[in-house]
Amino acid sequence: MASRSAALCFSAAAVATTTSTTGCRSSSSRSHVLVVCCDSTRRSDLLPSSLAAKVLGAPTTFDAAKLTVQFAGQDHQRRPAFPRAYTLSHCDFTANLTLAVSRIITIDQLRRWGPDDVFAEWKEMSSCSGGRGGGGGEMTLHLHCLVSGRNPLQGLAAGFRYYVFSKELPLVLKAVLHGDGALFADRPELMEAQVWVNFHSASTKYNRIECWGPLREAAERNLLEGRLNELQSEITKRRRKWNIFNALVSLFL
User: Fold this and answer.
1) What is the pLDDT of residues 104-120, one digit of tens each?
2) Model confidence over 135-168: pLDDT tens digits?
3) Is the pTM of this model over 0.70?
4) For residue 25, what is the DSSP state?
5) Which one of 62, 97, 156, 166 is separated from 172 by 20 to 30 angstroms, measured CA to CA?
């Protein structure tokens, strides 16, 4: 059920991230989606909404030894033509990562979209200044995460999943940089490509698109940086309120 709804909202996101013929970013045709422009130094306005997720700790450190890269086609060592797409899958038991590199993201992949899978695709976006290159635009990297589908139970965990994805997406970008390293060695200008993150959710609050800035900065983004004291203070404050509540209840028992 989740994968089916994911395929539907994914196709809508592809429309939302296109540009108009004038060269500037167009208004979104995806209903009830919030587009947030930000850089790597800004933090999402939704992060304080899931205190439980913050207790999980720092982002996962990327370990190249746990990454397996698979290239589409008969020859698994031959890289698909550019632009290309990526699917990153994660195993909860072993913490192993699998990066599948293909020419496009297929409908079959969307139908099998796992709750922790992340899709990424390169797109050429029109430039207001006329752009550069044969297509007259610049390349951008678009990530797609399934925060929640139409299942009400998934909606209850939307805030938690939004935060976890936001915290771990730099790991996804590092996996792409390492797994497709030959591409970035050949085209170092792609490190300056803007990263757009599409959070897919049946909830209008979490159905949003965020710009994370250049790829080189987005891959090093740390949402907890500079916030540990703030988070600890918030946890202490909530515990204090809970202790006061317990004392009042005990007084009247």
Assistant:
1) 887 777 777 777 899 99
2) 557 999 999 999 987 666 666 778 888 888 998 9
3) yes
4) B
5) 156
Of 26 and 201, the structure prediction assigns the larger pLDDT to 201
Question: Which residues make Cβ contacts (< 8 Å) with residue 229, sequence separation at least 6?
Answer: none
For the record, the structure tokens of 177 come out as 């940089």
Return the pLDDT at 130.
Answer: 42
Long-range contacts formed by 58-65: CB under 8 A, 24+ apart: 58/222, 58/224, 59/167, 59/168, 59/170, 59/171, 59/222, 59/223, 59/224, 60/95, 60/168, 60/171, 61/171, 62/171, 62/174, 62/175, 62/178, 63/95, 64/178
Which tokens in the block code for residue 154?
């998934």
Residue 16 has pLDDT above 50, yes or no: no
234 burial type by CB count under 10 A (0-12 exposed, 13-18 middle, 19+ buried): middle
Q: Which of 107, 225, 209, 228 is nearest to 162 (CA)?
A: 209
